[in-house]
Amino acid sequence: MKNARQTAILSIIEQNDIETQEELAGKLKEMGIVVTQATVSRDIKELRLLKVLSGSGGYKYATADKAEHGLSERFVRMFKDSVLSINFAGNIVVIKTLAGSANVAAEAIDSMHLPEILGTMAGDNTILAIVQNEAEAAETVNRFRDMLK
């Protein structure tokens, strides 16, 4: 019963913007699953659901991986909007951004969890991304340039 209920919860939040536990309990009831608010609360904790910003400006429940995916998409958009140029010297990728945008663009890079990037360092309008070797630097530059298209 618990597994079926939690599977139903995941399906509901995937298909609907659910803002409250009461709203979630109502959707479960529509599916023939009667629950208390306390049960819904426990399920939310066990499923590790998070409240994230919805497209309409409110908040909704989401799984951690969906929340991170939405965040990653937002970072990629900010990366695209702020990067002016990308080059490399040796194993260092140098990314120039609009003034004050380097930290956001570096966070976008870090959120991608690219194994070839050992680390990033951001100033006001410049990011240094350290990679293993020059070949990986060239590949990383091409990957970032493709993102800008």
Description:
With 149 residues, this protein is an alpha+beta fold. The protein folds into two domains: 2-62, Arc Repressor Mutant, subunit A; 71-148, Gyrase A, domain 2, CATH 3.30.1360.40. Helix content is 53%, strand content 22%. The protein has six helices and six strands. The chain has helices spanning 2-15, 21-30, 37-47, 64-82, 102-111, 134-148; strands spanning 50-53, 59-62, 83-89, 92-97, 117-122, 126-131. The strands form two sheets. Strands 3-4-6-5 form a four-stranded antiparallel beta sheet. The chain has a two-stranded antiparallel sheet with strand order 1-2. Helix 4 (64-82) crosses helix 5. The longest helix has 19 residues, at 64-82. It is elongated. The protein starts with a helix and ends with a helix.
Which SSEs are present, and which pair or pack?
Layout (H helix, E strand, L loop, with lengths): L1 H14 L5 H10 L6 H11 L2 E4 L5 E4 L1 H19 E7 L2 E6 L4 H10 L5 E6 L3 E6 L2 H15 L1
Antiparallel strand pairs: 1-2, 3-4, 4-6, 5-6
Helix pairs in contact: 4-5
